[in-house]
């Protein structure tokens, strides 16, 4: 995997790229302004994965780490690049940065993401009712997941 991917640390300078990637991965677009504002908060970490052969970004992950705990804010892999282990690779980078506990939220109907997170030993610890809004107006619950690192 790592021989076909190049990674770089994301920063406020990558707000446009991160927004474009997010928009291709999810129904709800996070604007460049919202991406930039994340990097104004303490503890922000981000990684962008780029396909070495095409030189095109294929995935990203953003995490906030404070006082030994971390939260994966968003992770996305382009639809055409899914199933190649990029999400696992990106999460692995972030788990190395985390001190003790990592949290994330995932739509309960996102079976591929649930499989990924469960395969990395995340456990469901809560539920947010009707947290995600779909393009068609329907809502879906979010599962809050947790992994103790180390």
Describe this structure as you would to a colleague.
This protein has 150 residues and is of the alpha+beta class. It has one domain: Gcn5-related N-acetyltransferase (GNAT) (Aminopeptidase). Helices cover 26% and strands 41% of the residues. It contains four helices and seven strands. Helix 1 packs across helix 2. The longest helix is centred in the middle third of the chain and has 12 residues. The radius of gyration is 15 Å and the shape is globular. The chain starts with a strand and ends with a strand. 26% of the residues are buried.
Helices and strands in order, then pairings?
Elements: E1 5-9, H1 15-25, H2 32-38, E2 44-51, E3 56-66, E4 69-77, H3 86-97, E5 101-107, H4 111-119, E6 123-133, E7 139-148
Parallel strand pairs: 4-5
Antiparallel strand pairs: 1-2, 2-3, 3-4, 5-7, 6-7
Helix pairs in contact: 1-2
Any guess at the CATH architecture?
Answer: 3-Layer(aba) Sandwich
Beta-sheet strand percentage?
A: 35-45%
Number of domains: 1
Distance separating the two termini? 23 Å
**Major sheet description:** 7 strands, mixed
Q: What is the level 1 CATH name?
A: Alpha Beta
Strand order of the largest sheet: 1-2-3-4-5-7-6
Category from helices, strands and their pairing? alpha+beta
The number of helical segments is 4
At the third CATH level, what is the topology name? Aminopeptidase
Uncertain residue ranges: none
Percent helix range: 25-40%
Spatial extent as radius of gyration: 15 Å
Per CATH, the superfamily is Gcn5-related N-acetyltransferase (GNAT)
Overall, the morphology is: globular
Could you give the count of β-strands? 7
Order of helices and strands: EHHEEEHEHEE
Mean pLDDT: 93
């Amino acid at each position: 995997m790592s021989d076909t991917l190049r990674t770089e640390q994301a920063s406020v300078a990558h707000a446009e790229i991160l927004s474009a990637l997010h928009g291709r991965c999810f129904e709800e677009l996070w604007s460049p302004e919202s991406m930039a504002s994340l990097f104004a908060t303490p503890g922000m970490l981000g990684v962008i994965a780029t396909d070495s052969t095409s030189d095109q970004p294929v995935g990203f992950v953003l995490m906030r780490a404070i006082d030994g705990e971390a939260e994966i804010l968003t992770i996305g892999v382009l639809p055409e690049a899914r199933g190649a282990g990029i999400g696992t690779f990106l999460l692995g980078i972030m788990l190395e940065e985390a001190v003790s506990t990592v949290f994330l939220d995932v739509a309960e109907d996102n079976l591929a993401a649930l499989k990924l997170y469960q395969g990395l030993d995340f456990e469901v610890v809560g539920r947010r009712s009707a947290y995600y809004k779909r393009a068609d107006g329907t809502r879906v619950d979010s599962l809050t997941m947790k992994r103790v690192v180390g």
